[in-house]
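Late entry, evening session. Most of the bench is empty. Finally got around to the prediction I had been postponing all week. Sequence below, unchanged from the version circulated by S.P.
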Amino acid sequence: MTTEAAEPVREGVVDEAVRARPATALRPYVAWYSGYRQRGIAPAVHRGLPSPYLTFILTLDEPLVLAAHPDPAQRPDAYATLLGGLHTAPALIAHDGRQSGVQIAVHPLGARALFGVPAGELAGIDLPAEDVLGRLAPHLQERLRAAATWDERFALLDGALLRAARPSGQVPPEVGWAWQALRRSGGGLAVAALARETGWSARHLQERFRRETGLTPKAAARVIRFDRARRMLTDGAPPPRLAEIAARCGYFDQAHLAREFRALAGAAPSTWLAAEGPEEKRFRNVQGGAGAPVAEWEA
């Protein structure tokens, strides 16, 4: 297990955030773990943005409050544990100055092995994790709460998920190849090109890809490209110019990037960056963890 160091705690404020890579055998299914605990910070609302990972959260001291879901038909609710599929609209997550938990970033094609269902069955929705995992979710949450350190919590996750994983051959290799090709290209491959390489028709690829990931190849490319641009916005001080990010991430121009950001994040890039960028530390969001993911963890 590889761990990124937490930031020092400021006097009078609890501000912990640690990110760790899972055990080697879990890496086909899980990208990373993020642990966070904050106290004495200003209440805030965070945008949970579309990303290429399913969201699996086990809270520690207080529930996770979703003021709005990616699916507007879902009512606001509070969750002790949460499992959410891929989505193309933001969630709104609120806290009152306190928050704590562990997030497991799950590769979509790992959903069958870890959860027993394809990621397509979880697309665009948020559920209590026990609705899918049964007693494993609350039992693991109790053990994480009792653990004394982040390293101990991450080791508990390794053990529990290794025992729960049931490698499955049901994910078509063509879908696996197409997903990895989109990730490697940063969302830069067209559906027609993917279909040619798999030997499937574009329609058949779309249907099978959506069942396994929850998104069509075109929507997945859009989310992957957006996620890359979002992370580039928080890299460095100052962050790269929007025109540079647009060019590097495959957008037509800066205006195209801005439109996509508004559509997927619900806010302009500058608005989002001012509220939740690297200089704004009042919310350890479930995507932010201890900083941007280490590049080699993203395979």
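Two things to note before I forget:
The longest strand covers residues 30-39.
The chain has two domains: 2-168, 173-276.
Will write this up properly tomorrow.
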